[in-house]
Each structure stands twice: as C-alpha cells, then as structure tokens.
Amino acid sequence: MTTLEGSEVHSYGPDLPAVFDGMKLAAVAAVLYVIVRCLNLNSPTAPPQTTYQDTLLSRYVLKSCPTLTREYIPPLLWGKSGHLQTALYGKMGRVNTPTPCGVRKFIPMQDGATATFDLFEPVKSHSTEDDITMVICPGIGNHSEQNYVRTFVDYSQRNGYRCAVLNHLGALPNVELTSPRMFTYGCTWEFGAMVGHIRRSFPQTQLVVVGFSLGGNIVCKFLGENQSNQDGVLCCISICQGYSALRAQETFLQWDQCRRLYNFVLADKMKKLILSHRRSFLSMASSRIDAADVNRLLTATSLLQIDDTIMRKFHSHSSLREYYEKESCVHYIHKVHVPLLLINSMDDPLVHHSLLAIPHTLAEKLPNVIFALTQHGGHMGFFEGAVLFPEPLSWLDKVIVEYSDSICHWRKNSCSNRTAPTST
C-alpha cells in the first residue's frame, strides 16, 4: 500500500486476474449448460416405446422389424432436440435427395375440382413377388415434389413398391384450381379418388396406405369412413399426426415448447398458399369465399383464425368446432381393421403429449394396432447419424418399409397356409 496526499491507493496484486479467470470459466460453464439443456445432450437414446396386444401378428411384426425394436440414434450434437429435428426437416426435408421419375395423373371430381397424383413404378420386384402399391398422403400443403417424399418414394421403389403420391388440392405451384376449394384437414375425397384410380388401373395390386402428419389424419379417416375402403389394403402407417384437431388447436395456442410460434409459422405458410388462389375463390360463382373473408385472412396470425375464416367454409361447416369434429380421424380410426402402425415422437413440438393418449389407448384395446413412440425425432425429422451430419435415409423411411415388408410376408404366408393341400 502507498500513500499520496493523505489518501490511500490500493495495489491489488495478482488476485484480480484470478477473479476475471473465474468469471470467464463461470460464463463458459453457463453457456455449456444452456447448450446441453437446449440440445438435450444428456438425454439417453433408446428403442421406441411400443404399445400393442400380444398376438401372433404383433410378435411376427416386432421380430421382422429390427428398426422398430432397436435403439434409435439421432445425430449426437443436435439430433436430440425436437426443435432442431423439426426445423431441419422443415428447411430441407432430407439430405442428398434423389429425383424419382413419375407420371402425373389428373382426376376430375364431381364438384369440378381436379385431383392430381404422381405415379412411380417400382424399379425391382417386391420380395414377395406380389404387385403392391403404396398410396401416400403427404403433410399439410405438401405434394410429391417435397424432398422427404422424394427420398421415401425412391427408397420404396428400390424395395419393390409402386408409389402413388397425392398432391394436396391447391398445393402444387403454378397449378390453378378448377373449383373454389382446397384441401382441408380431413377431406378424403381426393385421396379416395386416387385409391379408386389405382384399383381400376391395377386390379391385381394390393395397397399399403401411408400418411404423413396431416396426411395421417386423412388416411385413417378414409379407411374408417367405410369398410369397403379397406378392401385390398394390407396395412396402414400413420406418422406424426395429432388425431383430434379440436384438442390439437387448443394446445397450439400455448407457448409451451414454442408451440404458439410454430402455429404462427404454419399459419403464414397457409395464408400464402390460400392467397395464391385468391383469384379462383373470388371469381367462381359457386365460391363460398368472398372479399371480406380474404381481407380477414390478411390479418390472421394462427391456424385457428384461418380455419374459421376460410377452411371450414369449403365444405359448409357451420362452426369451427363442427369442422374440427367432423374432419378428425379420432371418430373413425377405431373402425380400421387392417394392421395399423401409429408413429409419434415424444419431442414433437407440434403434437402435444396429451394427444398421445389417443393412439396409446387404441393400441391397448385393438389387436391390429401397434403404437411406436420414440424419445427423439421431432416432427417428421427422425434423422439418423453419428455426430453431426445426418444420413440420407431417415429412421422413418426404414421403419415404414420394414413394417410394410413384414405385413406383406405375413399375408403371403397366411394365404399359402390356407391354400396348401392337406396330407392324407
């Protein structure tokens, strides 16, 4: 210590740098803690939790589907975050996406609409030597040109499946509507038209039904609406759907897991899609959408507002509640009697965990249902990989084809056993 004009001046020596070093270490530790928590790095990997009744079919399926029973390992550095899985899927769909070659089909509907789907032939024979067609319904506002659809179609073709992919009404860019309506949450008309076309064109084919997200709701509702819709259907796979629109929309207004933000992003996407067809809605005489509806749409910030202003009017639902109730598969899915695989992820930021009680209860009650719940995967992500870079094929691509293969072989073996001659 030194003295200058009667005042004391302190010399701090070597202790001050040590304090700063401690603060730096604490800051680094805090950042690492936040990263670990946000990326969920301490979450263990595990096989999917499967709910099912113990039947000969479920035993066979689980034995034949190693992907469904083994540990799902997402990329280490980011794959355990449902938000990042969802964001990466939303931004790029898949990596190294192939470009399968298909033919676009157009089907005129009774109300003047024109349904479209793309047809992709298999590049090799199926392992059962049977003719099998996957009829695929994509997610909200999606079509056959989405990267995740193209990747899945290419993989299915190489495993012997013909693929028919519905293009949601109004979703294809630069394709004008021929009637004043678009796809809705649960309208099955276009999907039914595609399935009917496939049955007429390939009367010998058997069907595997696949639905992604909103498409999962549509395919399960389609099968449950009429028993005849299940004719020739081997199985159905539904991925990342919410089962009940009424319950889902209540959770979409919550900030938990940033769900309100996702709601805003999806609403903005839907708003742009609807506005791209504004001319059709305002110019056609049979339209139920007027200029006032379009003006209200411009200020909408949630899917609920868009559904109330526009979507429910396409099929003349008197209220938003009626629209959600009548278009949700939760009232039809228990009538599906073909083998049914329901897949969801615990960290899906779009599907609230309370909605997962629906498939869980269904699998406990019905012998044809298996419910697979993964720890990670986000919404439609399910990327696999070692540390940073994901593989081109996702866990989802593999498990759908494996499950389909197992059902195809089960059905083939069952038919062979019934027709085999008895010994005397």
Sum up the overall morphology in one term. Answer: globular
Average predicted local confidence, pLDDT? 90
Helical content class: 40-55%
The structure class reads alpha/beta
Keywords: Cell membrane, Glycoprotein, Hydrolase, Lipid degradation, Lipid metabolism, Membrane, Serine esterase, Signal-anchor, Transmembrane, Transmembrane helix
Family: Belongs to the AB hydrolase superfamily. AB hydrolase 4 family.
EC number: 3.1.1.23, 3.1.1.6, 3.1.1.79
GO cellular component, one term: sperm flagellum
Structural notes for this entry:
The protein has 424 residues and is an alpha/beta fold. The protein has three domains: 2-39; 49-241 and 329-415, 3-Layer(aba) Sandwich (Rossmann fold); 245-327, no CATH class. 41% of the residues lie in helices and 14% in strands. The protein has 15 helices and eleven strands. It has helices at residues 15-39, 56-64, 66-69, 82-92, 147-157, 189-201, 214-225, 245-252, 259-275, 278-283, 291-298, 303-309, 320-326, 357-365, 395-419, and strands spanning 2-4, 7-9, 49-52, 103-108, 114-120, 132-137, 162-167, 206-212, 233-239, 340-345, 369-374. The strands form two sheets. A nine-stranded mixed β-sheet has the order 3-11-10-9-8-6-7-5-4, sandwiched between helices. A hairpin with a 5-residue loop joins strand 4 and strand 5 (114-120). The longest helix is centred in the N-terminal third of the chain and has 25 residues, at 15-39. The relative contact order is 0.17. Its EC number is 3.1.1.23, 3.1.1.6, 3.1.1.79. It is found in: Cell membrane. It is a single-pass type II membrane protein. Its main location: membrane. GO terms for molecular function: acetylesterase activity; monoacylglycerol lipase activity.
